[in-house]
């Protein structure tokens, strides 16, 4: 039995050309490619936000006439944010807050009751009904918006913010109901049975036992509804044609089309206003958000 003249160490491997590449080198190259790809992806995602912030704090004339990757102290100004208190912009912001708050209340309230009913009651075709709920995601807002425009105009909900709340809730509800249904299934039924033995009604048990334990799912549903309502453009553009009742995104677009705003500094300032709240909500509530999206099996 012949012994090999060369012993290949476990930390090395031979390439096709005969050169040796250690595992440490391969690991470094892998991490270099991984971190380089992550940095490139982050730069592509964050650059528009950086550009918006820079232009929001830059003099409007400088934004048009000069190009700079970094702001200079001479051009930094807060004058662009004066637009937030002028003209129709404050009304758009208030309308957006009202619609968003209404959508969150409707989505969270209905999904809690519906999710509890699906998790605790047995009825025929429950699985089919749950799958049927997801059919709402097959249709884009533009497809649903045109029929809703005709229906809302007939029943008097056109240019009414409650009509927009109903429309936004309808596209947020399927996911919220599914999330609440799966989350409530993780709550032991024995806790409710103990409350029933103590004399509590089903409604009291639901309110005192189930609801406190579904806070992560409530936060997740609320953030999901918030994101859809706060960033909505299509439904608001179709269902709120009036300039007085519309929300932020279509309202600003209409002002730009009508020549109301030609300053890029002002546009970046109001865009920054619409971007900051979702980021703050997601950052401070991310712990509850991640817990709410967890689906555990019993």
From TrEMBL:
<keyword id="KW-0813">Transport</keyword>
<feature type="transmembrane region" description="Helical">
    <location>
        <begin position="92"/>
        <end position="117"/>
    </location>
</feature>
<feature type="transmembrane region" description="Helical">
    <location>
        <begin position="29"/>
        <end position="51"/>
    </location>
</feature>
<dbReference type="GO" id="GO:0005886">
    <property type="term" value="C:plasma membrane"/>
</dbReference>
<dbReference type="Pfam" id="PF00528">
    <property type="entry name" value="BPD_transp_1"/>
</dbReference>
<keyword id="KW-0472">Membrane</keyword>
<protein>
    <submittedName>
        <fullName>Binding-protein-dependent transporters inner membrane component</fullName>
    </submittedName>
</protein>
<feature type="transmembrane region" description="Helical">
    <location>
        <begin position="267"/>
        <end position="290"/>
    </location>
</feature>
<dbReference type="InterPro" id="IPR035906">
    <property type="entry name" value="MetI-like_sf"/>
</dbReference>
<feature type="transmembrane region" description="Helical">
    <location>
        <begin position="217"/>
        <end position="240"/>
    </location>
</feature>
<dbReference type="GO" id="GO:0055085">
    <property type="term" value="P:transmembrane transport"/>
</dbReference>
<keyword id="KW-1133">Transmembrane helix</keyword>
<dbReference type="InterPro" id="IPR050901">
    <property type="entry name" value="BP-dep_ABC_trans_perm"/>
</dbReference>
<feature type="transmembrane region" description="Helical">
    <location>
        <begin position="129"/>
        <end position="152"/>
    </location>
</feature>
<keyword id="KW-1003">Cell membrane</keyword>
<feature type="domain" description="ABC transmembrane type-1">
    <location>
        <begin position="93"/>
        <end position="285"/>
    </location>
</feature>
<comment type="similarity">
    <text>Belongs to the binding-protein-dependent transport system permease family.</text>
</comment>
<dbReference type="InterPro" id="IPR000515">
    <property type="entry name" value="MetI-like"/>
</dbReference>
<feature type="transmembrane region" description="Helical">
    <location>
        <begin position="158"/>
        <end position="181"/>
    </location>
</feature>
<keyword id="KW-0812">Transmembrane</keyword>
<feature type="region of interest" description="Disordered">
    <location>
        <begin position="1"/>
        <end position="20"/>
    </location>
</feature>
């Amino acid at each position: 039995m012949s012994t090999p003249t060369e012993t290949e160490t476990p930390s090395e491997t031979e390439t096709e050309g005969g050169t040796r590449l250690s595992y440490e080198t391969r690991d470094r190259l892998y991490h270099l490619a991984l971190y380089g790809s992550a940095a490139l992806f982050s730069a592509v995602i964050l650059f528009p936000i950086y550009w918006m912030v820079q232009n929001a704090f830059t003099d409007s004339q400088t934004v048009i006439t000069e190009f700079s990757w970094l702001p200079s102290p001479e051009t930094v100004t807060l004058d662009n944010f004066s637009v937030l208190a002028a003209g129709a912009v404050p009304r758009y912001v208030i309308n957006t807050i009202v619609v968003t708050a209404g959508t969150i209340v409707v989505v969270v309230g209905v999904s809690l009751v519906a999710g509890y009913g699906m998790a605790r009651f047995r009825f025929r075709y429950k699985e089919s009904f749950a799958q049927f709920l997801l059919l709402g995601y097959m249709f884009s807002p533009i497809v649903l918006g045109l029929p809703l425009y005709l229906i809302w105009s007939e029943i008097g909900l056109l240019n009414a913010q409650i009509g927009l709340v109903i429309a936004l809730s309808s596209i947020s509800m399927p996911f919220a109901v599914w999330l609440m249904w799966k989350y409530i299934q993780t709550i032991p039924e024995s806790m409710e049975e103990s409350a029933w033995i103590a004399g509590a009604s089903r409604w009291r048990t639901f309110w005192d036992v189930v609801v406190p334990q579904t806070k992560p799912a409530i936060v997740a549903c609320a953030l999901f509804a918030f994101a859809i309502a706060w960033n909505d453009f299509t439904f608001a553009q179709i269902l709120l044609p009036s300039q007085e009742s519309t929300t932020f995104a279509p309202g600003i677009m209409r002002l730009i089309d009508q020549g109301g705003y030609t300053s890029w500094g002002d546009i970046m300032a109001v865009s920054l206003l619409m971007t900051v709240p979702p980021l703050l909500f997601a950052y401070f509530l991310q712990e509850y958000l991640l817990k709410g999206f967890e689906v555990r099996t019993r």
